[in-house]
Q: What sequence folds into this?
């Protein structure tokens, strides 16, 4: 059985985890937090060279990085595909997924430490984050109308990207911008509400909530946060 290393309050870890759940593939979860060092799981560097999560342990060896793990899962287990059938459709799903990761999640992530520690972000950084998110909000509606799914007529990898990365943006917006920038995207609020009703998404949320106290204790022990 494959082993997925990481922790349930990480959106990066939950990307392949949700893919496994939706495709009905058995896997074992192995808890590993970030912060690998000589004192904390140095052996994990053999699975993920930078000590990042997730890492997937397969019969052939280990794979790190969520995007690479998703590629492996789709090719190794083509049943219940999370990608469209056409080359164009596949490219559009990858485009939308990458757009969400690069121009929403990574932008909002600049304020994650402030969010976790309850501190105020640097004014310059906050202004840059707000400007970037405002620009991306306008552009996102050109890639999806979120009428049913993020792309096409079935649940897929673009939905996984949206479900697991956009909540970070909502949290940052409400906490530091005084508004939820995602609510400005037509159809997105209703789409997110529908996705939250999916059983596997509910499991992801429940597991993340259960893991959060241990994750925060880990951060305090490793970084003093």
A:
């Amino acid at each position: 059985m494959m082993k997925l290393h990481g922790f349930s309050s990480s959106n990066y870890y939950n990307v392949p985890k949700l893919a496994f759940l939706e495709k009905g593939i058995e896997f074992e979860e192995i808890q590993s937090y970030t912060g690998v060092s000589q004192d904390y799981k140095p052996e994990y560097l053999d699975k993920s060279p930078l000590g990042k999560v997730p890492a997937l342990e397969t019969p052939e060896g280990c794979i790190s990085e969520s995007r690479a793990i998703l590629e492996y899962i789709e090719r190794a287990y083509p049943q219940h595909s999370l990608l469209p059938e056409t080359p164009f459709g596949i490219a559009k799903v990858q485009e939308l997924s990458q757009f969400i990761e690069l121009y929403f999640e990574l932008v909002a992530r600049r304020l994650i430490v402030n969010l976790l520690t309850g501190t105020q972000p640097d004014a310059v950084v906050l202004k840059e984050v707000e400007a970037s998110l405002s620009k991306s909000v306008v552009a996102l509606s050109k890639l999806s109308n979120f009428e049913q799914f993020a792309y096409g007529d079935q649940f897929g990898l673009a939905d996984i990207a949206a479900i697991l990365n956009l909540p970070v943006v909502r949290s940052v917006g409400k906490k530091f911008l005084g508004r939820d920038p995602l609510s400005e995207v037509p159809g997105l609020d209703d789409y997110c509400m529908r996705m939250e009703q999916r059983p596997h998404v509910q499991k992801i949320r429940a597991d993340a909530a259960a893991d959060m106290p241990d994750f925060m204790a880990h951060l305090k022990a490793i970084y003093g946060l």
Notes: The two ends are 36 Å apart (CA to CA). DSSP finds eight helices and four strands in the chain. Helices lie at 11-23, 66-76, 87-108, 112-117, 123-140, 157-177, 188-195, 199-223.
